[in-house]
């Protein structure tokens, strides 16, 4: 019985890590998939709505949102943060931006006329801001946390450095976008696209590291792998 329970636990842990990796890979690949489909010239990753890759964009964002919505993490802080981020991602995936066409949720679901000049683009922008703010929070606060006493752990230090760099990239890009929208339109035609790409890369790398996709950053044993544990790993 104990052997069977341990095997089931290991299978659940590896499945959970695989999902973390998958979310990271989706986030990393999404902007480049939009470039590949559209061939360049996008002012924003979200403008993938208005290209032949619209289904790919919506599927990718909604896959990320669904995972975050049901991500359990280690305690209530993880669960609340990921639930809000997941909801925001689903809004981003279902409420298009203003990309020069009459596009809105009505367009996606075939409900009827759509109006790009309505509140939909603003809702999309606010949801994206909430999503990336929480992703930065994961990198700068939740991922580096540990309930274990401090001890020498080179891999943990390297992982934390990766999280801090990724979180700082997301926060810096958000600040640059805030300045652009609130004060001066300083970004070029593709500036927003590349800032969003940097944020998605940082998000993808941080979650891939958390999913133990980068071998040299992992601890030597499986002791740190806990699924729904009450304590955070070292």
Structure report:
The protein is an all-alpha fold and 234 residues long. It has one domain. Helices cover 64% and strands 0% of the residues. The protein has 7 helices and no strands. It has helices spanning 2-38, 54-70, 76-94, 105-109, 120-142, 154-182, 191-210. Helix 3 runs antiparallel to helix 5. The longest helix is centred in the first third of the chain and has 37 residues, at 2-38. It is globular, with a radius of gyration of 19 Å.
Rg, alpha carbons? 19 Å
Distance between the termini: 29 Å
Total number of distinct structural domains: 1
Order of helices and strands: HHHHHHH
| Number of E strands | 0
The coarse overall form would be globular
- Oligomer classification: single chain
The biggest sheet amounts to: none
Which stretches are low in confidence, meaning pLDDT under 50 for 5 or more residues running?
222-228
What share of residues are in beta strands?
under 5%
């Amino acid at each position: 019985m104990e052997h069977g329970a341990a095997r089931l636990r290991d299978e659940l842990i590896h499945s959970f890590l695989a999902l973390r990796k998958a979310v990271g890979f989706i986030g990393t690949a999404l902007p480049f998939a939009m470039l590949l489909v559209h061939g360049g010239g996008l002012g924003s990753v979200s403008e993938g709505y208005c290209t032949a890759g619209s289904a790919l964009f919506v599927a990718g964002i909604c896959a990320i949102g669904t995972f975050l919505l049901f991500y359990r993490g280690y305690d209530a802080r993880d669960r609340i943060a990921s639930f809000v981020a997941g909801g925001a991602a689903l809004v981003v995936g279902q409420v298009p931006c203003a990309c020069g066409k009459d596009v809105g949720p009505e367009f996606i679901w075939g409900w009827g006329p759509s109006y790009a000049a309505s509140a939909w683009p603003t809702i999309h922008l606010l949801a994206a801001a909430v999503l990336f703010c929480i992703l930065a929070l994961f990198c700068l606060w939740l991922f580096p946390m540990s309930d274990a006493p401090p001890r020498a752990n080179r891999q943990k230090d390297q992982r934390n450095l990766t999280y801090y760099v990724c979180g700082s990239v997301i926060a810096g890009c958000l600040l640059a976008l805030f300045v652009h929208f609130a004060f001066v339109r300083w970004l070029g035609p593709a500036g927003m696209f590349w800032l969003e790409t940097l944020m998605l890369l940082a998000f993808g790398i941080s979650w891939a590291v958390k999913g133990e996709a980068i071998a040299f950053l992992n601890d030597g044993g499986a002791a740190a792998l806990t699924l729904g544990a009450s304590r955070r790993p070292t």
